[in-house]
Write a structure and sequence with these properties.
Layout: E1 3-7, H1 13-21, H2 27-42, E2 47-53, E3 56-66, E4 71-79, H3 88-102, E5 107-113, H4 117-125, E6 129-139, E7 142-150
Parallel strand pairs: 4-5
Antiparallel strand pairs: 1-2, 2-3, 3-4, 5-7, 6-7
Amino acid sequence: MDLTITGYSSKDRDAVQLVLAQLGWTANQMDGQMASIERFSSAPRDRVYVAWANNRLAGYISVELHLWNNLAQIQGLAVDPSLRRRKIGAKLVGTVEEYVRENRVRGLYVDTPVNNVGGREFYERLGYQQDYVMTEYYDVGLDGVTYLKLFK
Ligand SMILES: CC(C)(COP(=O)(O)OP(=O)(O)OC[C@H]1O[C@@H](n2cnc3c(N)ncnc32)[C@H](O)[C@@H]1OP(=O)(O)O)[C@@H](O)C(=O)NCCC(=O)NCCS
């Protein structure tokens, strides 16, 4: 598989939306994520990257840099379900880690629903440690869990 990672541009919007549509999200969640992608791709320090597998959009990641504490936050990450377990997610996170480390950021964290078992295993595999659980962060009865990696 020929995999390349590029910066997001608004011409990628429909293709990203197609990947998100396969996650079973509500319209509100989709709209919120698309709005944040536009925001983070046009902010000076934040970034959105897209992965291309054989010239087809295979996934994306967005990251926000928090100036006040010099930490960065993954704000969105998804890989096309038909292209999973091929290290596309790992390469997207690796691209973000490289970018934030170049910017002397101290570490990277991400929130995910507690019931996202695959996503949690993924972050643990990449060296992220479970930090805290936020009660009902996502919805009534659905807690969020934060994973953190502090850079050496
Ligand atoms: C989480 C996600 C981004 C992983 O993308 P991916 O490209 O399939 O992941 P990779 O192939 O890079 O996985 C690297 C390693 O993480 C672990 N991993 C990944 N997905 C896993 C799963 N569903 N279950 C258990 N372990 C998993 C494995 O150790 C894997 O290595 P291996 O395949 O050699 O065993 C993808 O499943 C996804 O888009 N999920 C829906 C959205 C989401 O959960 N986003 C992240 C939370 S915000």
